[in-house]
Amino acid sequence: MTLGVLLMTYGSPADDLHDLPEYLAAVRGGREAPDELVTEFRRRYRVIGGSPLIPITLMQAEAVQDRLRDEGLDAVATVGMRFSSPTVLDGLTALADAGCATVTAIIMSPQYSGLLMGGYQRALDEARAALGAGAPAVQLAPAWYRERGFIDAVAERIRDGLTALPDQPPVLLTAHSLPRRVADQEPAYLDQLRETAELIADASGLDAGRWHFCWQSAGHEPGEWMKPDFADLVPRLRSEGHAAVLVAPIQFLADHLEILYDVDVGARAQAEEAGMAFARIESLNTSPTFIGALARIARETAAVGSA
């Protein structure tokens, strides 16, 4: 029996950005983005040369497929994007055509929020309905933020990143910010993020006073967003005498806009304005340790689904 693996994430606009308004509207739940927001995002994507998220996710899927086959499993892996092509339906169709009767679907976020990520399950249900009788059985992997290979992969990146900075700098473990009104509805999700930070800090050998959990990439919607933001912590760290800072996203698994612009451009400028040296850990992308974790999640989820 061939095991299918579907890696699912947000997606990105096309390289020429012609579909950016439609992409932003999809991300915003169907609400059309104001012209000024489209203009700003078009500028950001151009600054980073376009998002590499989809090509990287495809490489991650290929690496997972290779790992599973090396382990003796007959496996096929591909991708499905929630808000752009290739869609979840595209991915599930490809796996069905490859003869996969069962599929493990993995959301490319270690933590899970039903409010924020329930759309992936809906997309899977709609894709199976569209495929009809030929649809594979699909098992969605549960939250996997405690997966040892994921934790170790980030810790490896942190240890490597610290070598680029002097004097034992503080490490900021960042997660994507949320509107406070959303966060108040998802306390368990916040607990997952904070536990992830604690597990990674411990695996990295960081003392309690050496690391800080904070938020990044606050959106453009009105209202209160989660604190502390990166921008709130940096001036405080500088006033405490720190000359450098390392940023380590604990939620993002590949290079994309929130890494290449929000961190590499925006956060770097904020740190340098405060007079601090700045570095970011290398994204997990196709880290062998991380790919091993994804392969293990695929295997274990499939085993649970067939039990």
Quick structural overview:
The protein has 307 residues and is an alpha/beta fold.
Termini separation comes to 15 Å
Largest sheet: 4 strands, parallel
Number of E-type strands: 8
Strand order of the largest sheet: 2-1-3-4
Give helix and strand order, one letter per element, not per position: EHHHEHEHEHEHHEHEHHEH
Give a verbal description of the structure.
The protein is α/β, with parallel strands linked by helices and 307 residues long. The chain is globular, with a radius of gyration of 20 Å. Helix 3 crosses helix 12 and helix 6 runs antiparallel to helix 12. It has 2 domains: 164 residues, 3-Layer(aba) Sandwich (Rossmann fold); 133 residues, Rossmann fold. The protein has 12 helices and 8 strands. The mean pLDDT is 96.
